[in-house]
Design goal:
By secondary structure, the chain is mostly helical. It folds into 2 domains: 100 residues, Orthogonal Bundle (Arc Repressor Mutant, subunit A), CATH 1.10.10; 73 residues. The chain has a two-stranded antiparallel sheet. A hairpin with a 2-residue loop joins β1 and β2. InterPro entries: Metal_resp_DNA-bind_regulator, Tscrpt_reg_PadR_N, WH-like_DNA-bd_sf, WH_DNA-bd_sf. Pfam families: PadR (PF03551). This is PadR family transcriptional regulator.
């Protein structure tokens, strides 16, 4: 979905052919995200068949295949906005929002802010639940279980640290959204 958001987002600004989109993905992600030609063309074909993008121009080249330039349709613009909202609604990791964040100017920031606040509450509840469960299980230990506790402590500590990092990222995003609303 994030590649489709990226494609639709770029096409919402101007028409492109798939190769130029691939170069922009490389540029925007500093080559962290690698897209294969097969995956890229599959997504273009998928969006085309769904009527979200359209062929704008076919340029024939000497001794090479033609380049097809695509543009976004009105249906594609609607789908892009809804995809961004859906991504925010279901994101439990800040990384899942990266492609949507690049096109955040196309949607309502206050609506996104509300969704992020819901995610923040869910993460806080999860952290509390893990810590409470861990505390309860440590209170009921018998002597032979102490060896396993070290590993359980490691798991709990790692889980809560990861969740706290996500919480911090979502809280920073919340501040950015509120500043721009």
């Amino acid at each position: 979905m994030s590649l489709q958001i990226f494609i639709l987002g770029l096409l919402s600004k101007e028409d492109h052919h798939p190769y130029s989109v691939k170069k922009m993905i490389s540029k925007y992600t500093k080559d962290v995200l690698e897209i294969t030609d097969g995956n890229l063309y599959y997504n273009f074909d998928f969006l085309y068949k769904k009527g979200l993008i359209q062929k704008v121009q076919d340029v024939q080249g000497d001794n090479r295949p033609s380049k097809t330039t695509y543009g976004i349709t009105e249906e594609g613009r609607k789908a892009l906005k809804e995809s961004i909202y859906e991504t925010f609604k279901h994101a439990r990791s800040i990384q899942l929002l990266y492609s949507s964040l690049l096109f955040i100017d196309l949607v309502d920031h206050s609506r996104l802010s509300y969704m992020v606040s819901e995610t923040i509450l869910e993460i806080k509840k999860k952290i509390e639940w893990i810590e409470a469960l861990h505390k309860e299980s440590n209170e009921n230990l018998e002597f032979d279980e102490f060896r396993r506790v070290e590993f359980a402590d490691f798991i709990v500590m790692n889980s809560t640290e990861s969740l706290k990092a996500e919480l911090n990222a979502f809280e920073r995003l919340q501040l950015l959204l509120q500043k721009q609303s």
